[in-house]
Design goal:
The structure is a single chain. The chain is of the alpha+beta class and 325 residues long. It has two domains: 47 residues; 238 residues, Glutaredoxin, CATH 3.40.30. 44% of the residues lie in helices and 9% in strands. The chain has a six-stranded mixed sheet with strand order 3-2-5-4-7-8.
Length: 325
């Protein structure tokens, strides 16, 4: 009889099995290490992306614009101030340094014993728009409750990024409307509408905005059609040109930190005459709205409460958002 062929594989020795198990374990360990390295690399990439996005977001929120540094380059600040005073046609609502006071009592009326918040702004400036969209509602509540005086300083150097002199026309409208309508709510509402995300033109976008479109933003805020229609878009252009020369030379408006240190940018905010360094908001992890309330010596639940006055009063320095002092 033919013999049967034995097809059974020989069993591995104990040593061979151990060697195979060790090799498999080593392979698994190497694969795990490889996956950990990949995860680490992915984690680093994600972190870099997140940091980059945060940085971009910060730039979008806080990006400022150097305000016409070369305008009247040969003039001293005193000479620029003199030129400003020599302008023949000046807005009646603006003081000698270009500020327009808005308070609970109306345009041009200052309240005693409360802080004064100065805001230097340009209607074309993206940073100004972001600041207004973040803090405008709070500023309005503070004004309407008699908790602050708001000192508005319109500028118009942003025409650089506009095809139709948007900044100049918008600033003229603000000034001429404020001469006829003394309601703080109407004026601040107009500003909020002008900076609305779906209205403010993007810089260098080529978008043109008509005078009537801007006037509609005023009537939406409660300004009468008669006042809005009569408001001028060029009456105070010479004065605004002088402001654009004067403000960037004022050392008290210079950035005290950041890449624009030693230069004036918009938005610039001062509280009781003290420069408010918004660069500290990043360190403190605060929005401009949160930081502003803190700097005034209030809490969120006190905003808009009539009779609840900010702790810094009319003469105190803004409270630091990083040290609390």
């Amino acid at each position: 009889m033919p013999s049967k062929v034995n097809n059974t594989k020989p069993r591995k020795t104990r040593a061979a099995r151990r060697e195979a198990e060790e090799a498999a374990a080593k392979a698994r360990a190497e694969q795990a290490a490889k996956e950990r390295r990949q995860q680490t690399i992915i984690g680093v990439i994600v972190t870099v992306i997140v940091v980059a996005l945060v940085a971009v977001a910060g730039i979008a929120i806080w990006r400022s614009h150097v305000a016409a540094q070369n305008s009247g380059a040969n003039l001293t600040v005193d000479q620029a101030y003199t030129k400003l005073q020599e302008v023949k046609t000046k807005p009646s609502v603006a003081d000698e340094k270009g500020g327009v006071i808005v308070s609970q009592q109306g345009v041009g009326e200052k309240i005693d014993d409360v802080p004064t918040v100065e805001v230097y702004m340009d209607f074309m400036c993206s940073g100004c728009g972001n600041f207004e969209r973040a803090s405008g509602e709070t500023l309005t509540k503070l004004v309407e409750a008699g908790q602050i005086n708001l000192d508005l300083h319109p500028m118009s150097f942003g025409d650089t990024w506009s095809p139709d002199e948007y900044s100049t026309r918008a600033a003229n409208l603000l000034l001429t409307i404020a001469e006829q309508d003394k309601s703080a709510s109407h004026i601040l509402g107009f500003i909020q509408n002008m900076y609305a995300d779906d209205f403010q033109p993007a810089e260098n976008s080529g978008v043109k905005t008509s005078d009537d479109q801007m006037r509609q933003q005023a009537t939406k805020a409660g300004v009468s059609e008669k006042v809005a229609k009569a408001a001028s878009v060029d009456k105070y252009t010479d004065w605004l040109d002088a402001i654009n020369t004067y403000n960037p030379k004022r050392s008290e408006l210079f950035n005290v930190s950041g890449s624009y240190k030693g230069q004036m940018t918009t938005p610039t905010v001062r509280i009781n005459g003290e420069y408010w360094d918004m660069n500290q908001l990043t360190t403190a992890g605060m929005t401009s709205n949160e930081g502003l309330v803190t700097a005034l010596g209030l809490t969120d639940d006190q905003v808009g409460v009539e009779g609840q006055l900010p702790s810094i009063g009319a003469d105190g320095k803004p409270i630091s958002v990083t040290t609390g002092k």
